[in-house]
Design goal:
Length: 188
Amino acid sequence: MGRFDFYVLALSWSPGYCEVSGRKSPQCESESGLGFVVHGLWPQLEQGYPSFCEPSGRFVPGAAIRETSGLFPDDNLARYQWRKHGSCSGESPSGYFRAVRRARDLVRIPDSFKALHERSKVLPSEIERAFMSVNPGLRADMIAVSCGRRILQEVRICLDKDLRGFRQCPEVDRDGCRAGEIAVPAFR
């Protein structure tokens, strides 16, 4: 296993990501209907994080990419996440993507985000509470909301290294959105 202390599962809010980034990607096409998608599963240290750990981490076999179906919004993001973060997990590409799926399966998305058809404004702490209410054991010091230009970007949830449960992560929590109300764009 890689040399790290815990994982962070980063779940991007697609409508917010697309609004802030202005990117032209399949994730951002109108009618994509994407809400929360996996941005990545990041090995973390108590302070900081490793990245790009294996020079051989450049190649990802097609079979491993097929395992990511339904996790990442596109294959290029999956490949990049393997190079930057997965190569530090101590796993093969297939092992890392299985870990991503296990982590994603561990976290429930609140129903209020599954059919959001109108833009709304909320406090980051309200988003955290919505996730805590449907994920037993998840506490405020184990989750952080990320925002850009006062728009929801992603939710970051800290998980034990063995992916069996949630854990505290003071550094990740401190880096969360400190804005007052933030916009939560509706589905495209």
